[in-house]
């Protein structure tokens, strides 16, 4: 079997998770509620320090529900360069909400408060106004980069000064929390709505949640329905998440250690340079003349799957289904491909 580092979404449920799924108490979540989904939503709201949370089939739908709830047609959404909301959600902000996304280049790898402040345009009859700021923490496209709490707070202050809502794409907020030790609720307090994903580092087959103030989440219930996210016996999926919150959170530190181990083994070989990983994602810039697609193909033939992130950059993600031996083998293969 291949060592699959293309994404942290490729994991398969463990035997214990399958058992939790098989024995879940279920209902009809659209009709009159599913008890296991309800338990999950309450638990997520409490973990994030928010009034309420809603369970979603995907992070994209949860992100776009947050965007729908807080942006307005004909306004702009300010977000970091390379954000998932802008790059990988099928232009949903434009297609569904009628809002324009505008990337803000940070001074470092991710958006910072000062760059955000500079990007906000003064009110004028000639320029459209902003309605929303989106933060992604950790930032996938930048290489699993953590925005520290102090910077998150500073971004929140800039947004407040301009009466802008803040949505946090926290698909990998778990990783930011485990790597930095910052409580989840502290990160979440910097945003009005927070998306967290269960199908990445936590190793669940499906799911995400959106958390926020009670009134917004009441509206969010109907938006989720409109987007096609009303699920019926979804307690089966929620049971996997409840299991993972107990069993798979602390072990994220192992993914981070393996990312560092891989990065150390690869950095400098054949001119390759890594972005030092904050969490579970390693970006590898190839040496002069490097061709990422060609390396991906040669590595796949030797049983190691990675992504070509750009023509000269590889991305490797560490997760539940990769151990130390797999990490070392992956590094060996990449160094010889
Ligand atoms: C940062 C980030 N946000 C949102 C998503 C969307 O999640 P989903 O694939 O569940 O729609 C992803 C998925 O990779 C992601 O990496």
List keywords for this structure.
337 residues, Aspartate Aminotransferase, domain 2, Aspartate Aminotransferase, domain 1, binds pyridoxal-5'-phosphate
Strand order in the largest sheet: 2-8-7-6-5-3-4
Structural class, by secondary structure, is alpha/beta
DSSP E strands, number: 13
Poorly predicted sequence stretches spanning 5 or more consecutive residues? none
Count, helices: 15
Share of helix, binned: 40-55%
- Choose one word for the global shape: globular
Spell out the helices and strands N to C.
Answer: EHHEHEHHEHEHHEHHEEHHHEEHEEEH
Terminus-to-terminus distance:
19 Å
CATH architecture verdict of the largest domain: 3-Layer(aba) Sandwich
Q: Kindly identify the CATH topology of the largest domain.
A: Aspartate Aminotransferase, domain 2
User: Total domains, how many?
Assistant: 2
Radius of gyration: 20 Å
Strand content: 15-25%
Largest sheet: 7 strands, mixed
- In the CATH hierarchy, what is the superfamily of the largest domain? Type I PLP-dependent aspartate aminotransferase-like (Major domain)
Overall mean pLDDT stands at 97
The ligands bound in this entry are: pyridoxal-5'-phosphate
CATH level-1 class of the largest domain: Alpha Beta
């Amino acid at each position: 079997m291949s060592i699959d580092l293309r994404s942290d979404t490729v994991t398969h449920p463990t035997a214990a998770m399958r058992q939790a799924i098989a024995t879940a108490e279920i209902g009809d979540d659209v009709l009159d509620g599913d008890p296991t989904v309800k338990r999950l939503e309450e638990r997520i709201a409490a973990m994030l320090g928010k009034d309420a949370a809603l369970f979603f089939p995907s992070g994209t739908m949860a992100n776009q529900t947050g965007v729908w709830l807080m942006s307005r047609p004909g306004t702009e959404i300010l977000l970091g360069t390379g954000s998932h909301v802008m790059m990988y959600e099928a232009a949903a902000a434009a297609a569904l909400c009628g809002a324009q996304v505008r990337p803000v280049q940070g001074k470092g790898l991710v958006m910072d408060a000062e760059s955000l402040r500079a990007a906000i345009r003064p009110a004028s009859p000639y320029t459209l106004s902003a309605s929303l700021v989106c933060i992604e923490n950790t930032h996938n496209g930048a290489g699993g980069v953590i925005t520290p709490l102090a910077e998150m707070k500073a971004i929140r202050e800039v947004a407040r000064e301009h009466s802008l809502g803040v949505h946090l794409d926290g698909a990998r907020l778990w990783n930011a929390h485990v790597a930095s030790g910052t409580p989840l609720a502290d990160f979440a307090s910097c945003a009005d709505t927070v998306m967290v994903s269960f199908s990445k580092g936590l190793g669940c087959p499906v799911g995400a949640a959106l958390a926020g103030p009670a009134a917004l989440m009441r509206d969010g219930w109907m938006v989720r329905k409109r987007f096609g996210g009303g699920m019926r016996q979804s307690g089966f999926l929620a049971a996997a998440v409840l299991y993972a919150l107990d069993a798979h959170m602390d072990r994220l530190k192992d993914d981070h250690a393996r990312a560092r181990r891989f990065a150390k083994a690869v950095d400098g070989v054949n001119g390759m340079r890594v972005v030092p990983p904050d969490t579970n994602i390693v970006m590898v810039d190839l040496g002069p003349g490097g061709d990422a697609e060609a390396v991906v193909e040669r590595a796949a033939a030797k049983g190691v799957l990675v992504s070509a992130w750009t023509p000269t950059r590889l991305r490797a993600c560490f997760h539940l289904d990769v151990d130390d031996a797999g990490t070392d083998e992956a590094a060996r293969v990449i160094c010889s491909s």
